[in-house]
Amino acid sequence: MLKRPDGEFLPFRSGGLRFAFYGRVSTEDQQDPEASRQWQLKRASSLVEPAGGVIVAHYFDIGQSRSIPWQRRPCANDLLAELRNPNRVFDAVVIGEPQRAFYGNQYGLTIELFKHFGVSLWVPEVGGAIDPVNEAHELIMSVFGGLSKGERNRIKIRVRTAMASIAQMEGRFLGGRPPYGYRLVDAGPHPNPAKAAEGRRLHKLARDAATAGNVSRIFEEFLNGQGIYAIAEGLTRDNLPSPSAYDRKRNRHRSGIGWSKSAVRAILLNPRYTGRQVWNKQRKDEILIDIDDVALGHTTKMSWNDSAEWIWSDTLTHEPLIRTEDFERAQALLAAKGKRAVVRRPRTGGHTYILRSLCHCDLCGRRMQGNWTNDAPYYRCRYPQEYALANKLDHPKSVQVREDDILEALDDWLASVFSPPRLENTITLLERSQGAGPGEDTTKIAARQILADCERKLRLHQAALEAGTDPKIVKQWTDEVLTRQASANAQLAAIGERPRRLTKKEISSMIHNLGDQVGGLRFAAPKRKAEIYRDLGLKLTYKPQERIVRAEMLLNADRMGKLSCPRGDLNPHAP
């Protein structure tokens, strides 16, 4: 992704306008971003150079859909931000292809910013600068926005129709990971001659000897009356690999040891075990980000289609692991359980859990659930024994701690650390607990220096290409620079995700604002007490072996420190 250089710029031709170029390419796998940038830049240069203009800054978005507003495209947003800079290095902006830049009503929402900051916008379709008060120019740009939207919609319709036909008539595997119980095997060259010439191959599903039997077992046990939870426990107890354990490369975010109920349910709901290819089980819906601000655009959300909308292949395309009749019986049983009436006793009154969502189990890391027992609130963590064995955890079937045992010591501890004699020391400890910060600044400086160097080299490579250097050699140079640039951007992004270090003054201000409330915690109403705990950003972790609760305090969502508070019935003290 090429942005405006932070250091040197291309030479400015006296008497001419300085331009910033903006372009965009959406699909990095279907188009060559560099080739797309070059032809858009050439169109832009052909427009401004006869007028004595020179392009001094580049903003080019890669992998961003045209439907995303400018404010949500990284480089377009950088360009809009630079409009506000009175010392910006450009006088005008040129776009090589308006249909790639504007979608729907985006032109109307963007041109007002250019007009406000006195920056002209040039496009080839009007032969120069757009006149914001010219009706013909307004009409032309509106038409291009509509054409851009229509083009995108037509592509979506063509692709969906083609995929539906391929799935139904040919039963072709359309991509994605193979379902548990299957593996992918080669199915010959791609039928498209151009793709076949590139070495593209088709694939199909084949029975996986290591896991196919587990799928058959799940359906058999479910149809024989076992529940999903019991099936999951049995598979875990017998050390059979779960989907995440069997394919660790694609499931690094999961523990990959025990079976979960959701994994068993997903297998029971998958129609491809009948031997037919099934497509259109899910769809992408575009949902407004903010219904009160339509200009922010949409976000994509995956949704399940009704089974009547699924596209089934006309014939068997791979070896079935279960019979179609068994799959239909399983769906009927799942539907019946989902619609079964549940008789619940009427609630006599709501219970208040002051520490709701704040208590966690130290053994498994999960959040503990509120449970009312013997007219008192408890927090409990239930963990099936089979899961504990599979995950090699020494975890009792149930761990629980009484709320009263925590509150008394917790309130005394908070009142103590926020008391006037200890307040200054507490603020100092909180400030120190945020971790090292200066090193991050050094890392940021180094990463930005690398980016500036990359921008300089990219301009040199561009000049070399224009001077007649072999394009293959230039491409090799450019790839090396882009790899280095991507690494530096990733490093900056990782640093940016770290919480901002708060100054001692900021911490002091927040602590003094909370001081009076913390001092009266013991006598506060339960609802108010719960609000104060959440304002403090408390996270409580219960250690059952030691019978200790560890408290972490994260003020304003920034990690402020880690403090410990033992249970009051064992060893009350101030830290």
What report would you give on this structure?
The protein is of the alpha/beta class and 575 residues long. The protein has four domains: 18-152, Rossmann fold, CATH 3.40.50; 182-277 and 313-339, Putative Large Serine Recombinase, Chain B, Domain 2 (Hect, E3 ligase catalytic domain fold, Alpha-Beta Complex), CATH 3.90.1750.20; 350-434 and 499-575, no CATH class; 438-496. The chain contains 18 helices and 18 strands. The chain has helices at residues 33-48, 74-83, 98-101, 106-116, 135-170, 193-197, 212-223, 228-237, 243-246, 261-269, 324-339, 385-390, 403-417, 420-432, 438-466, 471-496, 504-519, 526-535; strands at 18-25, 54-62, 92-95, 120-123, 128-129, 182-189, 201-207, 278-279, 282-288, 298-304, 311-312, 359-361, 369-373, 376-382, 398-402, 538-543, 548-553, 561-566. Strands 2-1-3-4-5 form a five-stranded mixed beta sheet, sandwiched between helices. Helix 8 packs across helix 10, helix 14 (420-432) crosses helix 17 and helix 15 (438-466) runs antiparallel to helix 16. Residues 1-15 and 557-575 have low confidence and may be disordered.
Give me the Rg, rounded.
31 Å
Tally the structural domains.
4
Distance between the termini: 50 Å
Helix content: 40-55%
Q: What structural class do the secondary elements suggest?
A: alpha/beta
**Mean residue pLDDT:** 79
Number of strands: 18
Shape: globular
Number of helices: 18
Instruction: Give the strand order of the largest sheet, numbering strands 1, 2, ... along the chain.
Output: 2-1-3-4-5
Largest sheet: 5 strands, mixed
Strand portion: 15-25%
Which spans of ≥5 residues are poorly predicted at pLDDT below 50? 1-15, 557-575
